[in-house]
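Changelog note: in this version the structure field was regenerated for every chain. One regenerated record is shown below for reference.
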Amino acid sequence: MTIQELRDSLRGVDTDTAISRISDYIAAHNDDDEAYLLRGMKHWSAGHRAKAINDYLEAIRLNPDSRAIQALQAANDILDYYNKDLLNP
């Protein structure tokens, strides 16, 4: 199975099933940075922030030019955001 075939197989599948399928793919292809990015994105959408960031970091470790760099930056931007007006009503 290729990463594109994996992506195609995830259409219309619930998040937990998608994460499980991606994890199975990673077990057989543990050097595929795109698979880690994909699983990280699924973890993020499920609210598993730490797992998503760990997958992004693994993708970057495998490929320093990975698209996971942008995903990690977006995740950090979201986590670092706060609204000062909400702190002092």
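Spot check on this record: Helices lie at 3-9, 15-28, 33-45, 49-62, 68-80, 84-87. The CA atoms of residues 10 and 89 lie 44 Å apart.
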